[in-house]
Amino acid sequence: MSRKTESGYLTPLDGVDVDVLKPFSRLLEGWFCIGKEDAWSILLSLVGCCLGNCCIEEYYDEYGGASPDVVLKFTGEPVERMTGFCNLLLRESGRMAKRARLFNDTYFSADYTDVVYSGRPGEYTLNVLETGKAKMKLRRAFRYGVSCVVRPGARYFLGVTPYKKGDGVRNTVSLLAGLTVGEVDFTMSMFDKAFATMDVFQDLEDLGKEYVLPYRKNKQLDGMWTGEQKLVDYTIRKNGGGCKTVKIYLQKDDEDGYHAYVFPWKTTLREAEKLVELYRVRWNQETGFRCRKKTMAWTKSPSASYRLLLFTMSLLISNLWFFLKQTGNHVRQNSFKRRFLDMIRRTQTKIGVEHTVFGTNIKKTSRPATR
């Protein structure tokens, strides 16, 4: 439980300080060719507004740090370039975990997550069906494909790509798998049923990877279901031509009758039963998405690049919290948020920040760390 010290600050996290962010500051400095102090100030402000669940303008008015005029220069960056930088950040956090041997016995997982957006439609937005307490309605949103390594009780985000109109699930899986293969040696892939397409299965098999994911029910599977669990051959046909044979395991369910899971064609019944049980660890990624929402900054900017950067920062903070938990510092997320934000504010109160980045000269002295 966190406590206040005589100076009014919260007690720090055991063995952790803001210097854990220094490698990411160096990446920011090198990628965007900005000064060392500017990069450090910008990174602290971005992480701070995510931990405080506020926009960069509110964070600046309350705590100081990097000027919004400076930070919002990132809105002009091409999305493709920003995607490269965001994956560089996640890759660096992955290397921290790899050095701590947190990637033993892990599996690859990928999924989409949506961030609601109330602005004008664009190339990187889509309409999604949102279910509420009263009724369902269409909402505009940015969609991100996220790759993750999972194991029982743990997950770690390693890659992100924004959804673009015209992109299919095959393209998303190809990008995310390419980002993750170089960092983690995985043999098993787990996905949501939205990724269950013939092209995805073929690409994974070409990479020598096994896979397991739910498959949508249809009349053909209904005809195969006899009330007993079994493994059956199933042929998937593509509208444009071509077909592929896979194995589908039909598992009995008291409420829905049965669930269907798809595997490579060579999978045996015993292997399928084990993999269906193993598939439960993929829900750690869903849990990670819910935890990410607690460290998500907000903005009115319509820039897909800036929104991608803020989204990635929330994933990065989630990785740092998980890293602490797995290395012996069993701190709850809310306590981690308060204490790490306090550490950032404490650092910024000691610095008078002079911004000379992107041709802008703005001076700001951080305010005392009190609300």
What does this structure look like?
The protein folds into two domains: 119 residues, no CATH class; 252 residues, Transposase Inhibitor Protein From Tn5, Chain A, domain 1. It has 371 residues and is an alpha+beta fold. The strands form two sheets. Strands 1, 2, 3, 4, 5, 6, 7, 8 and 9 form a nine-stranded mixed beta sheet that branches. A two-stranded antiparallel sheet has the order 10-11. Helix 7 links the parallel strand 5 and strand 6. The N terminus and C terminus are likely disordered. Helix 2 crosses helix 11 and helix 5 packs parallel to helix 11. The protein is built from twelve helices and eleven strands.
Order of helices and strands: HHHHHEEEEHEHEHEEEHHHHEE
Computed over alpha carbons, the radius of gyration is 23 Å
Structural class comes to alpha+beta
Question: What is the count of DSSP helices, taking H or I runs of 4+ residues?
Answer: 12
Biggest beta sheet summary:
9 strands, mixed
User: How many individual domains?
Assistant: 2
Which CATH architecture of the largest domain would you pick?
Alpha-Beta Complex
CATH class of the largest domain: Alpha Beta
Distance between the termini: 20 Å
Quote the CATH topology of the largest domain.
Transposase Inhibitor Protein From Tn5, Chain A, domain 1
